[in-house]
């Protein structure tokens, strides 16, 4: 059976009656103007009017601790990003077909985060566009079309990328040139077995593509395997995977939309934990702290091959305002020590969840790196039975206690802990103490 | 033979030696950091550091009259857009899964521009994403996959949209479910014949898709047929086309990335000139005056069908800052009378080109609506032989005289006249007089 990952934490529009009149009115306006494809979070949706640091504020001025939003990764309404955007927008906002220093300064600063590896940068506006472009590059360079993804991967919403995103569930068919492989599931298997399942799956997928006359173009992985259930281990796995896919003529694409920009704490990019050099690295969400900027870096020979045949012009991609936002984010991560903070507070938070697990048997496992943690909830630790209902209840109860969080994983039974990088130990304590209270009620 | 539309007005990197040392240095930095897929405009690329109104400024403070950039459509660095972005970015920038008024206010204001027709809005970050999503909606709703485009159409850069964009030339193969039809070419044919070729082409494309077992999903057209060579006539054509594609089970998608947001002068949207109601309308470039916002409106039953099966979440799409930028643009178009200005100055400019055509036989035809005009250059008016070299020379000479313009059309022999909407008659005179001088030299 294909697990249906349709948003576990979505508002059910049939439950409109229980809400405040002004919330009902807003939701009715949404339904009329935006229609069916938009979803709201929570049994009781939240209305926000202001954001600052690690907090969002409702119209009454109540502060919500944000443990979810990795887009405003360096803190909501970060003054340096706001200033950079405002200043550049007032000066010049144009495109990449004129000479302008902002894209060069930013591209060079970004490329410098790759530890001396030679890459070139291309800019888009969204992570979906970045992955879509990565597929175009990989297919052009390899001559293949086959794409291999993990079983519950999410890589974005363009046609080409959505058909490589099994996380959408059974209503969205995978592409005919797409194969899935198991994520390195270290909860149900030991590390060696998890790695073997992943690599054997990859070999089988390559063979199956070839058996169907499809040449592999790429293996693409979220380097923390987040939508598959957050699997940061075993380290080194991706180096072995890279070898296999390259032997088959394909490329390794590291999707850093989740793990990148210092979130993993120990490294700036998630793939660096695995000591591998991907052929293409894609990035998005936190890149402009909410300003729509995304992109990729790729080995020069890959971009050469593509660029000689086809021009690429993304109207808004790499514009001076987006580059100013991106540069402000890079600077803030460095100047404010946010990578170190992600490592320290991430470790503190992880230890805190592990301490909770000592008294609350509902917590089956705590996994993650830096400030991306998954807390897996089970009704039975031996049989590892997913506690989906309880997880949903916790998420909604946390919302009532003004803490924002969501669920993750194929069974919707994991707390998705993904706060802003300046998250403090006091913020962590607030989350841990509130969760402790809730778990006592279960 | 497939005409190769690779940028007629692109800088040739082998000509680096003739440029100023600081320009050479910037281009070398670009080549190293960004690689081969990025192109610069002009034999002598331009370096800009500031924009204001209808002018861009180089580092020496020289003003260039901008007759090209339709993104900063209401004027470069428009103070109201800058203020809206700065204010909202400092307050709150989050996503569509929380309640927020900005997306509702903006969606309602946008929907009000459709003259009472019932649509719903979905937001993306780029026009490419908007067209990509339109294809997903159309394919979901119709159950078909076939897409019909004009022979030199350009609809964007995602995989799915690029394979429907013959403007990229022969190096980018069209998708196997894509068919092309002639644009309504009123230069080589009279209006009745141009319309017949377009509609007969459409019928043939539908039949050919069906003959191959492919059900048509949509006909998508730029409502001014700009990359095909700017064909605003015959009005009414699209209503007839809509009938044909709907009879075959497909939808009409109006791509308003070029024609929309008041550019055509007489109407807010290009399709409104044709008195047709498209099933889906996509929009992009000018929507946020340079801020990355794009989107579509579609008939509610189309969005319903899609949204019930699949969720759609575009991380940055419809965020409060983007919506604030979009709202400022809508307000400025209204408050500053920019649609009326596009109509008046557009007509003035068109008449000016027609006057130039009386003395300069190089001008074969002047076409367009509002402030999107195409001036077709030919070496022989009888035989209509494209004057590509002369057109390229004019574009580069205009750049030396600090007027920014580009080429358009399958043969690269048209001046692409697409200034900002506040373009004045004095601006028009400057362009016309300079062009007159240049034409005298030919």
From TrEMBL, chains A, B:
Keywords: Aminotransferase, Pyridoxal phosphate, Transferase. InterPro entries: Aminotrans_3, Aminotrans_3_PPA_site, PyrdxlP-dep_Trfase, PyrdxlP-dep_Trfase_major, PyrdxlP-dep_Trfase_small. SUPFAM superfamilies: PLP-dependent transferases. GO terms for molecular function: transaminase activity. The keyword Transferase applies. The keyword Transferase applies. Its cofactor is pyridoxal 5'-phosphate. Belongs to the class-III pyridoxal-phosphate-dependent aminotransferase family. This is Aspartate aminotransferase family protein.
């Amino acid at each position: 059976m294909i697990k249906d990952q349709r948003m576990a934490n979505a508002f059910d529009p049939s439950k409109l009656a229980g809400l405040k009149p002004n919330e009902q009115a807003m939701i009715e306006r949404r339904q009329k103007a935006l229609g069916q494809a938009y979803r709201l979070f929570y049994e009781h949706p939240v209305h926000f009017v202001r954001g600052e640091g690690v907090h969002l504020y409702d119209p009454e001025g109540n502060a919500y601790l944000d443990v979810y939003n990795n887009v405003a990764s360096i803190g909501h309404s970060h003054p340096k990003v706001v200033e950079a955007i405002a200043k550049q927008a007032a000066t010049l906002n144009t495109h990449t077909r004129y000479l302008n220093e902002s894209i060069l300064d930013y591209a060079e600063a970004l490329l410098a985060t790759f530890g001396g590896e030679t890459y070139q940068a291309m800019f888009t506006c969204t992570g979906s566009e970045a992955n879509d472009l990565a597929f175009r590059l990989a297919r052009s360079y390899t001559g293949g079309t086959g794409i291999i993804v993990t079983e519950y991967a999410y890589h974005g919403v363009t046609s080409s990328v959505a058909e490589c995103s099994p996380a959408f569930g059974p209503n969205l068919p995978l592409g005919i040139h797409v194969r899935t492989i198991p994520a390195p599931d270290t909860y149900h298997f030991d590390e060696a077995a998890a790695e073997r399942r992943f690599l054997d799956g990859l070999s089988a997928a390559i063979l199956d593509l070839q058996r169907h006359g499809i040449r592999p173009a790429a293996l693409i992985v979220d380097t923390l395997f987040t939508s598959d259930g957050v699997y940061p281990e075993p380290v080194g796995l991706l180096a072995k995977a890279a070898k296999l896919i390259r032997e088959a003529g394909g490329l390794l694409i590291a999707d850093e939309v989740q793990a990148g920009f210092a979130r993993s704490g120990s490294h700036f990019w998630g793939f660096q934990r695995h000591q591998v050099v991907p052929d293409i690295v894609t990035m998005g969400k936190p890149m402009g702290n909410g300003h729509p900027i995304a992109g990729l870096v790729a080995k020069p020979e890959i971009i050469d091959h593509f660029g000689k045949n086809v021009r690429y012009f993304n109207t808004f991609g790499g514009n001076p305002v987006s580059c100013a936002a991106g540069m402000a984010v890079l600077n803030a991560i460095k100047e404010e020590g946010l990578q170190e903070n992600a490592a320290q507070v991430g470790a503190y938070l992880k230890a805190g969840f592990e301490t909770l697990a000592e008294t609350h048997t509902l917590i089956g496992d705590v996994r993650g790196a830096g400030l991306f943690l998954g807390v897996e909830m089970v009704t039975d630790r031996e049989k590892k039975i997913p506690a989906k209902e309880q997880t949903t209840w916790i998420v909604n109860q946390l919302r009532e206690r003004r803490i924002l969080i969501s669920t993750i994983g194929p069974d919707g039974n994991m707390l998705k802990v993904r706060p802003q990088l300046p998250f403090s130990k006091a913020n962590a304590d607030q989350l841990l103490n509130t969760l402790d209270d809730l778990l006592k009620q279960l």
